[in-house]
Amino acid sequence: MNKVIFLAAFLFGYTVQAITGFAGNIFCMPVGTHTLGLHESVSVLNAMGFFACGLLGVMNIKHVNWRELGKIVGIMLPFVLLGIWLDTVLPLDALLIIYGVVIVAVGVKNLMQKQQRFLPEGALVAVVMGAGLIQGMFVSGGALLVIYAVQKIRDKQQFRATLSMVWAILNLIYAVIAFQQGHFTSDVVQVIACCVPLAILATFLGNKLQARISQQRFLTLTYALLIAIGGVLLVTSLGSL
């Protein structure tokens, strides 16, 4: 039953991922932690993040902003590796609560303000660094990276395609590390096998749905998702205290 619950959450989360270019793992991670276990869910979601995001990126390869892709990965990668290390030495429940509060605040702020306000370049770099750190610790850096991406990548097709390629690259690196650490057990491989057809279905379904969403509705959906993601993280984190 636990695996069925996880697979249902996975199908929903990765459909959202295909629509927006982020948020799939953030929706799945709290469910996976409670149904599969922390390391097992991280391993599954990294493998599937590479597969599904890579598939979406290839399907929309002509829309990838390669300059921004290189910049994002170059800034995030060292902090992803730092986050992976911190995950082994720090108690992270309190950090998850802080992360949830920040995400909700960002989503509410952007939904309420009528005009887009731009962060200075230094603040944007700090946001991308934070996204890398959170990605390494929680496989959930998308909610922070979207703050940078909505300012730098205004076209929704470029937004989705570029972020999908970011997650494909970073998830592949993280999956290799998890494999070396022995986290890809037979149970994990079994769940991954069940997720592959669901990921294909979610990718094609989300790709169809996003074509019917206007640019303004796309941004509104993005910010609303941030609030939902932050709420999920807060509920699950407070519940574990």
Would you write up a description of this structure?
The protein has 241 residues and is mainly alpha-helical. It has one domain (2-239). 82% of the residues lie in helices and 0% in strands. The protein has ten helices and no strands. Helix 3 (38-59) crosses helix 8 (156-180), helix 4 (66-86) runs parallel beside helix 8 (156-180) and helix 6 (121-138) runs antiparallel to helix 7 (142-152). The longest helix has 25 residues, at 156-180.
In short:
With 241 residues, the chain is mainly α.
- Give the H and E element order: HHHHHHHHHH
Radius of gyration: 16 Å
Chain-averaged pLDDT: 87
Total strands: 0
Number of helices: 10
Beta fraction: under 5%
Q: Structural class from helices and strands? A: mainly alpha
Question: Portion of residues in helices?
Answer: over 70%
What distance lies between the first and last C-alpha atoms, to the nearest angstrom?
Answer: 25 Å
The main pleated sheet reads as: none
Question: Uncertain runs with pLDDT below 50, 5 residues or more?
Answer: none
The total domain count is 1
Please tell me what the overall shape is.
globular
Give the secondary structure arrangement, pairings included.
Blueprint: H1 2-20, H2 24-35, H3 38-59, H4 66-86, H5 93-112, H6 121-138, H7 142-152, H8 156-180, H9 186-210, H10 215-239
Name the features.
241 residues, mainly alpha
